[in-house]
Amino acid sequence: MQIIPLSEGAFTIDKTKRFVPFDMTKDDLQDRPTGSLLVEIQPFLIITPDDVLLIDTGLGYEIEGELQIYRNLRNAGFGPDKVTKVLMSHLHKDHAGGISGDCAPGAPASGRSLAFPNATYYVQRRELEYAYEKGPTSYIPDELECLKTASNVVFLDQDSGVIDGYIKYEVTGAHCPWHQAFWIVDAGETAFFGGDVAPQLQQMKSRFVAKYDYDGKKAMEMRQEWWMKGQTEGWTFLFYHDVKTPMFTSR
To answer: Can you list the domains of the chain with their CATH numbers?
Structure first.
């Protein structure tokens, strides 16, 4: 399989949950509010013999009237129309902003449509329900509205399962109640995406408990378990929020 990180850049985020662009070459983290976190925003494109997979969809920012993720896909050699599956770990705004757009093909004059109309979206049904229950500031319901009626959305109702024989998903909770992780297994290779339960390489190597997680202790324990198993089995870990190491292969 081929794996391509689709970096949208580095950002800081503080207790306001606003994502503020951060230039790694000149900005100083000490100039940001106390407690600001430095994170990458990084969906992944995975090409297998059967699919062009997109894992999470970024912030949904636009550049010159075009979704940034469209531009990143084209830079990687793929038009947005080539994406066949969109796998969503959860629907927080930094992961689901590009799920739809008012500049997406077929968008109404005032409203949004799914950004990848040729793809099948895989979304945890309970996560979408929770997004509307919780509302802003972690979720932006307006960006998710078209999921409810689109014919190319598959709502996952189980705690675990397999998609098309080679994509495993499992509800992890931990970061938010219905967060899920994915394993893509192809030709003896395993790519693992732990979303915000496993967002950065350094967190895999330490017993870090994050205060921003729904269940920080559970998240830490899952990272430890995945790290040990992944090293034994040679997984390629994909890190959505790591500013230095988007991927790490345990071989």
So the answer is: 2-249 (3.60.15.10)
